[in-house]
Design a protein that fits this description.
With 326 residues, this protein is α/β, with parallel strands linked by helices. The chain contains twelve helices and 13 strands. The strands form two sheets. The chain has a seven-stranded mixed β-sheet, covered by helices on one side. Strands 8-9-10-11-12-13 form a six-stranded mixed β-sheet. The longest helix has 18 residues, at 259-276. The radius of gyration is 18 Å and the shape is globular.
Length: 326
């Protein structure tokens, strides 16, 4: 299932019985809402029993609008289209922060609806299509054949398989593998490339006029999504975000953060990684994450702990996806 392999279905559903109500669940998903500076947010979601959608944004400049990340589910894509219709602008570009399916799956539909649209992103998806995503598709097909996927998740697994099968359509038209300043739709932005962080290459965007950093999965709740990550590179990227001059952070999953909140999340991740790379009990690492990130986890502690337990073991065992390592 892309990032959410069958092996992770238990994590995605771990909090179902607890019926968690977390802060970011209240973010509007049916329509884009303005956050200032000609920027609109379509809040992602991670509903119990479902794979997530990442946060998406619509920005516009003198030459049109553009979308940052396109989500996974049809309802999220519809919200993006509603947002574009609401501001009365045609998108000229999509910027993908990284290749995880909850950030790129809407690309083909948006390109079909707006044929002149251009996709900006890194070349890391090439390695993902032949590596992580190919292995994921193989595991998912095997699990489907063996009846190992819960009935409630079959449609999502099949949808992700269809997206992976159209992998060539997810590749960027304009490859950004090095940090550079550029204008998109006539709007000046700084596109920053982080190497070996959440993926082999992550793209985050600094909007100097708004002192806003749009960082994709460099920041996620209720846990850091470490499936394809390199912890040291991730922490280095967060240091670069902290030094960017940003006063506001838009995460890949979760609520917009002022810098004080970002610094708190950054510290919690630093401590979690250090603990998981150490020799102490992994349960201590999970407990530390729950305490450090309590503000964003809310009552979603069952799922957050399950994910932290899983990712702590991933770090401790050295089983992180190998292609993104130096």
């Amino acid at each position: 299932m892309g990032r959410w392999l069958p092996a992770l279905l238990a994590l995605a559903c771990a909090g179902c019985a607890a019926n968690p109500e977390v802060e970011y669940a209240a973010m509007p998903r049916t329509y884009a809402h303005g956050i200032g500076g000609a920027t609109f947010l379509i809040g992602g979601g991670f509903d119990p029993g479902r794979s997530p959608d990442g946060n998406s944004l619509i920005l516009y400049g003198p030459e049109g609008a553009f979308v940052i990340d396109s989500g996974r589910h049809d309802a999220h894509l519809m919200a993006i289209k509603q947002g574009l219709s609401g501001i009365g602008m045609t998108p000229v570009a999509i910027v993908n922060t990284h290749w995880h399916l909850d950030h790129v799956s809407g690309n083909p539909a948006l390109k079909a609806a707006f044929p002149d649209i251009k996709v900006y992103g890194t070349s890391a998806i090439d390695g993902a299509l032949t590596g992580f995503l190919a292995k994921s598709a193989e595991s998912s097909r095997k699990a489907l054949a063996e009846g190992a996927i819960p009935a409630s998740a079959i449609a999502e697994v099949e949808s992700d398989l269809a997206t992976i099968a159209r992998g060539a359509e997810l590749r960027p038209d304009i490859v950004v593998d090095e940090s550079r300043d550029m204008s998109i739709a006539g709007r000046p932005l700084s596109l920053r490339v982080a190497r070996h962080a959440v993926t082999e290459r992550d793209l985050w965007i600094y909007d100097a006029a708004q002192k806003r950093a749009i960082v994709g999965d460099l920041v996620t709740v209720p846990a850091p999504f470490l499936d394809t990550a390199c912890p040291e590179g991730w922490l280095k990227a967060l240091d670069e975000v902290a030094a960017s001059g940003a006063e506001q952070i838009v995460p890949g999953h979760g609520p917009i953060m002022p810098m004080a909140d970002f610094n708190q999340w950054h510290a919690a991740l630093d401590e979690f990684i250090a603990c998981a790379e150490g020799a102490g009990a992994l349960v201590t690492c999970s407990a530390g994450w729950l305490a450090g990130a309590k503000k964003w986890i809310g009552s979603d502690t069952v799922r957050a702990k399950a994910m932290a337990d899983y990712y702590g073991e991933l770090v401790r065992s050295g089983k992180l996806d190998g292609y993104c390592r130096v």
